[in-house]
Amino acid sequence: MESTLGLEIIEVVEQAAIASARLMGKGDKNEADRVAVEAMRERMNKIYMRGRIVIGEGERDEAPMLYIGEEVGICTREDAKSFCNPDELIEIDIAVDPCEGTNLCAYGQPGAMAVLAISEKGGLFNAPDFYMRKLAAPAVAKGKVDIRKSATENLKILAECLDRSIDELVVVVMKRDRHNELIQEIRKAGARVRLISDGDVSAAISCAFAGTNTHALMGIGAAPEGVISAAAMRCLGGHFQGQLVYDPDVVRTPESEKWTREGNVARLKEMGITDPDRVYDAEELASGQTVLFAACGITPGTLMEGVRFFHGGARTQSLVISNQSNTARFVDTIHMSESPKYLQL
């Protein structure tokens, strides 16, 4: 899968990032997301594959673009039988977030990126459009920290694993009212907190890389992004756990007010999830034999530069992680839309 699709999935996230970056700082998050979606779909539909979106732009609202269940790739066309060889056909599941951090892009803030994860059919957890309690940590803490333990306990364990004092640790938390008690506990334990407004996929992945000054991600964020984070952490060997949050009283948002606890439990049962309180690890959320993750920076972030435009083209930086080759590749690409006067270095 990696040798067949590796370069093409890089181009998918690159095209989405470039499209979205043209609207960076213009204050229109919906349009930034829309153009990223269109660019991502257009490029995916040129790939020789039969792909199915298992995490996309919408579930309950049946969003019109890259929705859950949508099929993409050349071999999904009506005339595919005439040119797609069933013996060579690659069938994959795809999780996408064409503009992870739409607000970050719209207001020119760091950390927006285009991301996707792929695996063979059935290899990615079909996450409902719920929230998820998350815990990410470096590989040395894998299986030692646990989402069922308190933040204080996990910080003590993490400090021991990293051979650091707790006051040297940095924990990323989404700046939300629901996290006020968590933030207080982390600070009381002695660790430092870095608050982010959006974009917890980047924060989760950063835990696996030394030098990012990110040692843990804690708190509640969107479940679909949790699966994408888990795919990357599965490939990197990092620690990731997720637990679905199905009680709307835990996460109070305009969207959650439309749903009830009982209704959410019923929805989970329909999806085959009989234990709504189960804690999933990265290997369960991204269980496929082959898992690939790709991201391209839209705005500058901890791991990647954002898109930089110059006369006649653009420059992007992407990250591709594979459990097949056990690699994490940073790809620097110059895209020439016309004959440039010079190449931007």
What does this structure look like?
With 345 residues, the protein is an alpha+beta fold. Helix content is 28%, strand content 26%. Strands 1, 2, 3, 4, 11, 12, 13 and 14 form an eight-stranded mixed sheet that branches. Strands 7-6-8-5-9-10 form a six-stranded mixed sheet, with helices on both faces. β6, α5 and β7 form a beta-alpha-beta unit. α6 runs parallel beside α7.
Summarize the structure.
With 345 residues, the protein is of the alpha+beta class. The protein has 2 domains: 2-121 and 289-336, 2-Layer Sandwich (Fructose-1,6-Bisphosphatase, Chain A, domain 1), CATH 3.30.540; 131-285, D-Maltodextrin-Binding Protein, domain 2 (3-Layer(aba) Sandwich). It has 9 helices and 14 strands.
Q: Write the H/E string, N to C.
A: HHEEEHEEHEHEHEHEHEHEEEE
For the record, the CATH class of the largest domain is Alpha Beta
Quick one: how many beta strands? Answer: 14
Q: How large is the share of residues in beta strands?
A: 25-35%
Proportion of helical residues:
25-40%
Looking at the structure, the CATH topology of the largest domain is: Fructose-1,6-Bisphosphatase, Chain A, domain 1
Quaternary assembly: single chain
Taking the sheet with the most strands, its summary is: 8 strands, mixed
| Estimated structural class | alpha+beta
- For the record, the count of structural domains works out to 2
- CATH-assigned homologous superfamily of the largest domain: Fructose-1,6-Bisphosphatase, subunit A, domain 1
CATH architecture of the largest domain: 2-Layer Sandwich
Distance between the termini: 32 Å
